[in-house]
Specification:
CATH topology of the largest domain in chain B: Cytochrome-c3 Hydrogenase, chain B
Order of helices and strands of chain A: HHHHHHHHHHHH
Largest sheet of chain B: 5 strands, mixed
Shape of chain B: globular
Number of strands of chain B: 15
Strand content of chain B: 15-25%
Number of helices of chain A: 12
Helix content of chain B: 40-55%
Oligomer: heterodimer
Strand order of the largest sheet of chain B: 1-2-5-4-3
Radius of gyration of chain B: 23 Å
Number of domains of chain B: 2
CATH class of the largest domain in chain B: Mainly Alpha
Strand content of chain A: under 5%
Distance between the termini of chain A: 44 Å
CATH architecture of the largest domain in chain B: Orthogonal Bundle
Number of helices of chain B: 17
Number of domains of chain A: 1
């Protein structure tokens, strides 16, 4: 039963990701005084791409062909470990947040290799930029996660959420800092403005899009879908770690239904925040990103320090 | 100090005379408003050197294959005086000293003549081909008289893979080829970057992909057909080029458009300026990922072109200017409508510009990017808003005014910081100045005819015109053949001059800033490639 639920939750995760992308698009259009496409447009786009034959560049090796599957699979596996509507699922016992970061790194490695594999200037450029950014984003993310782990005395997401739920609504400065750091990292890692622009056609300015320029057909569909899942993953992480209230703690139908409604609400609100930042800011000059991510890291470190100084001390005395 | 009382033109003539390069000064009525000076072929380079020392601006060069032989003309400007230097190549001679060592701007136009006429320029610093790709062989010169207007090409053009781009060597230097086919809906052009990390070491442009043979297919047309062709030299400057061509033809024929037609032409040209400034201000925002500005400016532009459709029957105002006058009129109704639209646009701009001005993330992208120093702009002879954002004040409407601008108060906004931000703001200021000009013209609109009767010009009559298009100075030379047909048409889009500026202002910037630098110059591919 629990395993079935875990599989269903993962499927829900994968199926809902394009919907979140559609919602973001919708809010964005509204804020830019434009007519929005249907909420379900991302599904149609994926279906359209899936039906098309992928074109392989002459210079592509097996890495180029394998990368879409590896990227998609690692993202789906990552999604399986993150509690979406309920905690205490068996999948959560298998892996913790460090494994999650590892899955992200695996997907990214193959994405970057595929970008360089075909030997075009754009692919190499995108890969080099992606690695520059992730080398700064990953420490900031891990630091935010460790802050959380120190409070909850675990790196397991399920247990951490239970800890936050059990202690109730307490204002922890460390969590506020970690939340700030995590949100900044999420924007960078999912390639949104002001770090990267998923909507641009300008090859020279691209980061993520430059790596996947040569992909087409169902491979492109897989990569796009993986990006949507990754975006949702970050949303769910932020929503459920820092605001876990509403998540189902048992497997009753009522609790699960409430859990689904709550996570949908939380993601919808987070999406509005993301869109606000995308509408209000121009994309940063690429060498500003290091300042931006250093700031994210600083916030996470501050979170850690405030935990040690303010919160941990209180426990000991 | 001894020059008091003598203008720049007189001084240059004196110099030429003492150096023995000039052979003949024509009467001012020969090709107004320009002065025409004949130079002996051997003194062609020397003349450029002298003019450069006297701070004349180099504007363009064109050749003609006349019955009498090959003729080359170069156009210079100083203090509002256009000077055309002309030289006749003796029979059998097909080389001339280059002016490019003295004027950067002459580099590509001379190579263009080399490709199109087979005239070699001695001492040219970089004499490789320019506009010729592989569509015709090296020893064929399409603008010579013996080349048919219909062309000879039957096969698809083979790829051009042997163009000698500059190569950079060394550790960690890499090359980024961009184009000719781009992701956006723009024209084809190739950019070859040499970069270290993200820093651009060198940028080389390769143009000519949209060569349409405009100069060749102009031959033999009648005046109204040429006006239509001129309106298609560069689609976004249809009014500017059509006006320049018509003005040149009218001067050759010795007629003048009626005052009402001149005012209407002014209105059309300023309306075209508004379309393009709105569009590019938005596009600049889009190129730094600020979609809000893009959509808002796009909306304003769309409203404006719809207004064009309602008032003049064409969204982009194509074919409204005809030889002798205009093919449209303004009723009191449309004039009122236009005034209301101007007031509305101003109000919207106030609101929008306040938002953009207060956005520090936008400022951070624009400030300092794509710096073109005033010295460099002057050395390149940069024109239009590119020049005016780098302290070059020249504007044909003010410095060499033509009707209707003589009767108007033309304000020419300037900036001197020379970066993307300067080019953004100078265009915003121009937009405002445009709206005021439009109101002045609506206020002062004279009554009367719309078209002056056409006079068939004598064979060999020549006409020259300079008008300020939205990109900057547009030049046009027309020579009539027999029976009211065109013998030679030479349009010079401001892009010809401004493309090299992009190469220079990109240096030292980071690769991802190139699109916004490029957009801030926004030179025309079609207007350059002809």
């Amino acid at each position: 039963m629990a395993w079935l639920l875990a599989i269903l939750e993962t499927l829900l995760f994968i199926a809902a990701a394009p919907l979140l992308a559609g919602w973001i698009k919708r809010v964005k259009c509204r804020l830019q005084n434009r007519k929005a496409p249907s909420l379900f447009q991302p599904y149609r786009d994926l279906r359209k791409l899936y039906r098309k034959q992928p074109i392989t560049p002459h210079s592509a090796s097996w890495i180029f062909r394998a990368a879409p599957y590896i990227v998609f699979a690692s993202t789906v596996l990552a999604a399986a470990f993150v509690p979406l509507v309920t905690v205490n699922l068996p999948t959560a016992r298998i892996a913790d947040v460090i494994v999650l970061v590892g899955f992200f790194a695996l997907g990214r490695t193959f994405q970057v290799l595929a970008g360089m594999d075909i030997g075009t200037a754009f692919g190499g450029m995108g890969s080099s930029r992606e690695m520059t950014i992730s080398s700064m984003a990953e420490p900031a993310m891990l630091m935010a996660v460790f802050t959380l782990a120190m409070s909850a005395h675990t790196t397991n997401l399920s247990q951490a959420m239970n800890y936050v739920l059990d202690t109730g609504l307490v204002l922890r400065p460390s969590f506020v800092f970690a939340l700030g750091g995590m949100m900044l990292v999420a924007v960078a890692e999912t390639g949104r403005i002001p770090v990267d622009n998923p909507a641009t056609h300008l090859e020279l300015t691209m980061i993520h899009e430059a790596m996947i320029l040569e992909y087409s057909g169902r491979w492109l569909a897989l990569i796009e879908w993986a990006s949507q899942i990754k975006l949702m993953l970050y949303g769910v992480l932020i929503a459920n770690i820092f605001f876990p209230w509403g998540i189902a703690q048992d497997f009753s139908l009522q609790a699960l239904g409430f859990g689904v409604a709550m996570i949908a609400l939380k993601l919808a609100v987070l999406a509005v925040l993301l869109v606000l930042s995308e509408v209000l800011f121009a994309k940063m000059r690429i060498f500003r990103v290091q300042e931006y991510l250093s700031f994210a890291y600083l916030l996470s470190v501050l979170g850690m320090l405030s935990h040690i100084i303010l919160e941990a001390a209180r426990v000991h005395h | 100090m001894t020059t008091r009382g003598i203008d720049g033109f007189g001084l240059l003539c004196e110099k030429f005379e003492s150096q023995g390069v000039a052979t003949r000064l024509y009467h001012p009525d020969q090709i107004p408003p320009a002065r025409l000076l004949e130079i002996n072929p051997a003194g062609w380079g020397k003349a450029a050197e002298t003019a450069q020392l006297q701070q004349w601006r180099w504007c363009g060069v064109w050749a003609e294959d006349l019955e009498a032989g090959l003729t080359v003309n170069a156009c210079l400007e100083h203090q509002g005086i256009y000077l055309i230097l002309r030289t006749h190549l003796p029979d059998g001679q097909n080389s001339l000293p280059s002016q490019a060592p003295h004027y950067w701007a002459a580099d590509r136009p001379e190579r263009n003549i080399q490709d199109m006429f087979g005239i070699r320029f001695e001492d040219h610093p970089d004499p490789k081909r320019w506009v010729r790709h592989q569509a015709w062989p090296e020893d064929v010169y399409p603008l010579r008289r013996d080349f048919p207007v219909a062309g000879r090409q039957t096969e698809p053009t083979p790829p051009d893979s042997t163009y000698p781009f500059l190569k950079a060597h060394g550790a960690s230097v890499y090359e980024i080829p961009v184009g000719p086919v781009h992701a956006g809906i723009i024209e084809p052009g190739h950019f070859r970057f040499q970069a270290i990390g993200e820093t651009v070491l060198h940028l080389e442009e390769r143009l000519g992909y949209v060569h349409k043979g405009v100069e060749k297919i102009a031959e033999g047309r009648d005046p109204s057909s040429l006006a239509r062709l001129a309106g298609r030299v560069s689609g976004d400057t249809t009014v500017g080029h059509a006006w320049a061509a018509c003005l040149a033809m009218e001067r050759a024929a010795g007629i003048e458009a009626p005052p009402r037609a001149a005012f209407l032409r002014g209105i059309l040209a300023e309306r075209e300026r508004v379309i393009n400034h709105l569009w590019d201000l938005g596009a600049l925002c889009n190129d730094v990922g600020f979609a809000f500005g893009y959509y808002q400016f796009g909306r304003l532009r769309e409203l404006w072109v719809r207004e064009n459709q309602a008032c003049f029957g064409h969204r982009l105002l194509m074919d409204r200017i005809v030889p002798g006058g205009v093919a449209c009129d303004l009723t009191p109704d449309t004039a009122k409508r236009m005034r209301q639209a101007i007031v509305a646009l101003r109000k919207e701009l106030d609101e929008l510009i306040t938002i953009l001005d207060g956005n520090s993330s936008l400022e951070d992208r624009f400030l300092g990017a794509g710096f073109l120093s005033p010295e460099l702009a002057s050395a390149l002879g940069a024109v239009g808003f590119v020049g005016r954002a780098s302290g070059q004040s020249f504007d044909v409407r003010k410095d060499v005014p033509y009707p209707p601008y003589q009767q108007l108060k033309v304000r020419v906004p300037m900036e001197d910081q020379g970066d993307v931000s300067s080019r953004f703001w100078v265009r915003h200021k121009e937009l405002r100045a445009c709206l005021r000009l439009l109101e002045q013209m609506l206020d002062g609109m004279p009554a009367g005819e719309l078209v002056a009767p056409w006079l068939i010009p004598d064979a060999d009559s020549e006409g020259f015109a300079a008008v300020e298009g939205w990109r900057g100075e547009i030049l046009c030379f027309v020579r009539f053949g027999t029976d009211n047909t065109i013998g030679r048409y030479w349009p010079r889009d401001p892009s010809v001059i401004n493309w090299p500026a992009l190469e220079k202002l990109t240096l030292g910037n980071i690769v991802p800033d190139f699109p916004v630098c490029n957009k801030s110059v926004n030179a025309s591919y079609s207007g350059h490639d002809l």
